Amino acid sequence: MVIIWGTRVRYRIHAEGEFFCPECGGDRPYRKLLARRWFTLFWIPVIPRRRVWWVVACGECGHHYRPAVLDKPTIAAMSRMLQGAARALVMYVLRNGGNQDNPVVRRQAVEQIRAVRPEGYDDSTLEEDLFCVPRDPAPMLNQIAEHLDSAGREALLVRGVRVALADGPFNAGELSAIQAAGRALEMTPAHVAGVLLMARRSVDNPGS
Ligand SMILES: [Zn+2]
């Protein structure tokens, strides 16, 4: 008699949700699975092996990942974080600069936030934000910093710099706000100084 003996991996669904699939390059449904290899007899699983491991499977492309893939935020979550960080940064610059009633500065502030939150942000939303956005932007900037590279952190800080420069050179309050925001974004003082220098040059020589 021929005995057909082999092994097979079986999966048990443990959790489901949405994640950023690196293979698809977008937010997709996932299943977190507990995997275990079984010995099979005539293709029927009969004896489980002791070792188990976790797998995250994309519901779209079927690619398998280690569970650490779930540590990365989805595009939707990243977008919410970026909007929150930009609003916190701009309000911080406005409050510390003491020029939140200047229409030119307010227009620039609205423009900078609309760049990351296009839907329905205007001067009245800005007025609400000046009241309700937390006074200390550090926690939000700190949270997003770990998901941004150096260029991404710089691009975010520049939004605050443009608001500060809307009515002329930095005042002391604006400068210290930008420097504190740079620290919260885990940028070095030299990197922040470079960003400030570039921003000043582009204001002094528009179009260059
Ligand atoms: Zn996928």
TrEMBL record:
InterPro entries: TerB-like (IPR029024). The lineage of its organism: Bacteria, Bacillati, Actinomycetota, Actinomycetes, Kitasatosporales. This is Uncharacterized protein. SUPFAM superfamilies: TerB-like.
